[in-house]
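Hey Z.,

So I finally got round to the S-adenosyl-L-homocysteine thing we talked about over coffee. Here's the setup:
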Amino acid sequence: MEACNAYYYATRDPLGARGDFTTAPEISQMFGEMIGAVLADCWAQAGKPDDAIYVELGPGRGTLARDALRVMRAAGFAGEAHLVETSPVLRAMQQEAVPGATWNEAIGDLPARPLLLVANEFLDALPIRQFVGGVERRVMVAAGGLAFDRDGQIVEESPAREEAVSAIATCLAATGGVALFIDYGHATSAPGETLQAMRSHQFAPLLDKPGEQDLTSHVDFEAAAAAADGVTATRLVTQGEWLERVGIGARAEALARANAERADDIRAARQRLTARDQMGELFKVLALHAADWPAPAGFA
Ligand code: SAH
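And the result:
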């Protein structure tokens, strides 16, 4: 999964109508704006530290960063933008969207500064391991392609995901800041297979075309929060609830008034991001914050 995704992301822009999947920031500018407003509010409440930096893990086309930073700049935040991205194709797109940003290969390369961090659909792309009856399930070469070596009740684990959350928590505990993780997933650890492959906006057979389709799994937020040592984790809220609590309704109406010809599209985008039968319920938001930083808005 690690090798397939590294190749997959390094060789294409996977997003949008002609790609394999679409993400919340690509649906509407409101998504990034809400995140920017919440991060700017934390920064202001923390006394506007001028060494704080905006950080995004896996920024895709850079759309979320562009929308969030527009709001943060308007609120007086003048700090640097640091993007953690391995894909050269996506780095080039991010450069257009976020002029002046700095790229980091890995979380461990981030500077020791207070972080205003967001990761949308980043954790789901990190590799997982599957176990059947306590034995790791492996992929083998079989007649005509690839096959799993065993079947049965599957338990998934993601050491890579836990390491990423743990590394961010270590940074927050040392230098302050807040982190927002947004992804599809579940609130409590449970057995079951969630690994999925997406190609051209459709689910595809998992082992088809390795490196040519998007491999992700649902994030176990209980395990993720448990990896966050030394910081405070908020409760987990659904994306729909969180966006409504931080004011997407008012933003949608303001945008609709200012762009009457697009009003229907704007209201439809709000629905797509928040409705229970769309992205609102499956996607969840978890925040971490340093002990001496405020909890981000929308979780209380
Ligand atoms: N956050 C964006 C893109 C999500 S796709 C959005 O919401 O639209 C996943 C992103 O994570 C891509 O930018 C991909 O290149 C990046 N990514 C995947 N694995 C990574 C890794 N191990 N290290 C850094 N970035 C990674």
